Structures are given as structure tokens and as C-alpha cells.
Amino acid sequence: MDNTLRTIREEIRKNREGNIPALTLVIDTNILADHAWARDSNVVYLIEEIIPNHREFLIVVPHICEVEFKLITKEEVNGWKELQEEIKKRVKDLERYSGFEELCERLKKDVEDLEVLINRLREAPMKEIGILSSLMLFFSESLPLQHEMSYYISKDPDYGLVFEDALVFSFVKLVGKALDGESKVLFLTKDRDFDVEKVLAELREANVEIYFASGECLQRIKEELKCE
Fold this sequence. Notes:
Blueprint: H1 2-15, E1 23-27, H2 29-36, H3 41-50, E2 57-62, H4 63-94, H5 101-132, E3 137-139, H6 144-155, H7 163-178, E4 184-188, H8 197-205, E5 208-211, H9 214-225
Parallel strand pairs: 1-2, 1-4, 2-3, 4-5
């Protein structure tokens, strides 16, 4: 345990030029997507306005979240691609009917717009990680203890977590313990699978505050950093 906590502290110190930040936020995969896809203004503001102006604040991304972000982006692309192909197919059918020329043109425009969206999504992981790597810590250091903890957590029905979520949960707990007394640790996720009493209790024991709403988390961060 001591070696794992020491590794976490060293990586965080390295990212902050030898200092432990006063406030540390661990984020889940869905928060990365919120920023990359610009679907949550609170998250965009947090990353683009708060982080650059507060060196005493650090966001940490578990390695599994970086991997999962690539996966959910691929799934998102496939979903929109399927819709695009279905519209193309329907347009061909619709062209056989008279009086629906304007509708056909609108649907063709939708196909073009979807292509723009699909291309943007395909580029999102590389662009997002490239942009954010200078603003936050993508934690890639191997932590064998984290994987051992996650295995048993994922097998325990009291937690109700799949292995990937158990990896995130165990990482957040380890960060809380590693920084106890030196940095206030928050965890922001929109995954309600973490809203389980055993999970919440163990996060409290590790001195980690969990937030499921980005607005509440943003307000808490502003209070800690004493910013408007």
C-alpha cells in the first residue's frame, strides 16, 4: 500500500513541479466526453476557465478512463453512422414518390451534416487528450494494487461494480489516501453505478467527496479556490 500511495504522490508532484495541489479532482470517462463533445457547459467552463488560472488545482484522469473514452467515442460514431446509412436508404425509397422533392433535399442535407459530426467525433479522442494533457494529469503509471483491489471489488455484489468501474473507484480511493491531509480530493462522475452506500461510505473514509452533478461540483471548486 505504501509504495502505491508513494507512486501516486510522486506522479502528482511531478505534474505540479514538486508541489501537492491544494485541490484535486478525479474525473470519470463521461466527463471527458462532456468536454470533447461540448455537451456540458459546466464541464467546459471548469476545464477551459478554472484550470488554466489556478495552479493549486489539478484534475487527474485514471488510465482506464482514457481507454474507455476511445471506446465510447467509437460506439458513438457507429451509432450516428448507422442512422446516416438508414437515412441514405430511405432517401432512395422516397425518391420514387412524387411531391416529396423538398423532403429528399432536407434529408440529403442531414446526411451531409451527420458526416461532419461523425468526422468530428472520430478526431475527438486524439484532439481531446492532446489538448488536455497540458492541463491535467492523465495517470498512466502502473498500480498493481489498484488492479488487485478492483478484481475483488468487481466480484463483491455489495459494490455492484463491473471491473472497469471498480478500477476507477479503487483509483479514487487511493488518491484520497495518498493526498490525505495535504489536498482536498473530489470525484466527479455521472455514472450512478457509484451511488451505492458501500461505495459512498468507503469514499468518505478515504476523504473523497463525490459529485454526480457538474454544477454542484463546479460550485464546490469555486468555493475552495475562492473564485467568482
